Amino acid sequence: MKVTARQLLQDRNRLAPNTVAAVVDGRTVDLHTPLEVADGVEVKAIPSDDPRALPIIRHSTAHVMADAVQRLFPGTKVTIGPSIDSGFYYDFDRQGGRFTDDDLGRIEATMKEIVAADAPFVRGVMSRDEARQKLDAMGETYKLEILDGIPAGEDISFYQHGAWIDLCEGPHVPSTKFLQGVKLTSVAGAYWRGDERRPMLQRIYGTAFPSQKALDAHMKQLEEARARDHRKLGKELKLFMFHEWAPASPFFLPRGAWVYNALVAYVREQYARRGYAEVITPQIFDKALWETSGHWENYRDNMFLALGTDALETAREGHGVPLSGVFALDEKVSTALAPVHANYMCGCKAMNCPSHCLMFGAERRSYRELPLRLADFGRLHRYERSGVTHGLSRVRTFSQDDAHIFCTPDQMGAEISGFFDLLDEVYADLGMRDVKILLATRPDQGYLGSVETWERAEQILADAVLGKNRTFEFAKGEGAFYGPKLEFHVTDAIGRSWQLGTIQVDFNLPERFDLTYVGADNTAHRPVMLHRAVLGSLERFLSVYIEHTAGWFPAWLSPEQVVLVTVSDKHVAFAEDLAARLRVAGVRATVDASNDKLNAKIRSASLLRPPYIGVVGDKEVEGDGTQLRQGRTDLGFFGFDALVAKIRAESVAPSRRAPAAG
Prior knowledge:
By secondary structure, this protein is α+β, with helices and mostly antiparallel strands. Helix content is 37%, strand content 25%. The protein has 21 helices and 34 strands. Strands 16, 20, 21, 22, 23, 24, 25, 26 and 29 form a nine-stranded mixed sheet that branches. Helix 2 packs across helix 3 and helix 14 packs across helix 15 (451-467). The N and C termini lie far apart (74 Å).
């Protein structure tokens, strides 16, 4: 029978006024489109305050924005307008002008008029020929191209609110009145289909929420996020820099390098306690490694590829191409290099796992050696497109707290449980306690191995989570191409979620590299490989952590633990001596010996956000100590020994500190 989701919900008394859509037999649909359903079909309402409603609200708002743009700027062509994590965007081809901030204000005002009209979103289906005639009459050439990409046999659906209509799969909210919290945020350029050979379009970004209150809360979060932006703080706190001659590749300055190395040292100390062995692996491998691992087929576009001098000489000698000419991008050279690519291509290391497989397979292994936990802080290189690189959070060169555990099938549960313990301790030490777990399952295509193997691995991960009395959500189809994984998403100080840690079950790489160990029965067995990281990319983690702490690192990670500022020049000599003694005692101390006034020195020291500032004047010289400040709080006088004891106690991660006396 044909019935709408609205009717199904009404029949079961589940239709609330704030219902924006429904889930019918596992599929998200709008409320008003007739559906072919069986008796007893399962239906669940999606209220406006449900997280599943946000993409629908935002997609509908993108339609309203496009309507407003075409009302204000006739002749503008529309392309695509999806919902994204931060809101939505729509790409426009506007002839004869660029959108300005003033234009955004006008567009937003017109959108509010459309919302107030409470126009219903109505879905209609056309034949392919009818759709082509419709779009051609509208002059929507980009939509015609989208139409051509819809597979044969699929519905050609349109959504209309008021007089405005768009080729769209949906679903959408019942009417425009559900779009109460709307804000346009910026304009940027974007190539059609992301192809720099195609027309440059104008992309308007915005965000939408089910209410103005929710939008206001979001805008406040954005304001706080701008203040905490790690790119801004990285410059202000002298942590890192970038240069155009090394695109998307960070330079860590002395203060940033200290924090970076302190994190590595902290993780190494964790490894020493938990039975990991650290290894060092090469940076460049023959493509045979990547072909064996499957990365050549599945990841080559994101790798830096290399040709050695021998390959270039082959091109020169075999094809008459000058050595200097092989770098020219012309047809002759491309033809000359084609066989060279096939035989001499290398890849810069983009991940550590294949090299660890080589290490495992380099010698005969016994079950008595397992689990074998190999950790690697080796530098990795991935070719991220310039349009997606972003400060430290998306770079082209980075290191991971990366490790791979080779174990027997029976050992997997204990190893995953041990990883939970490691991860919980590390996150607690870093003040990141709000953690959500996702189980990323088999992709729809491009995966290695059998469906049965994937299902087994997914069940192992699910059982491990439940065995720790934790809960998880599914991220369907989001697994790596070689195996499913658990993702650990951490909520930061201003409520944003970041994926940091991961553990992945991999039956496929051991198979592809033909890895074996001799079992207790004296026969060969295939090990299981667990890929795991706690912080993930150290660069990306620092981008998250800088914003989480707003640059106020705890004393055990801060480059300086105390900055001494002097009341006058006559106190400088004592302050320098005090700082030197503190450093000998293991406290990271510096001195501001400038000629500035005391308050100016305190303000200047505060800009680098040290845990403590020590004021040195006559009384402090006499008492051999300092008046200690933490932020704006005066902690009182601390003599040398008391100061050392206080800061030394905070110089290790919380989990490694001695219990307080008494």
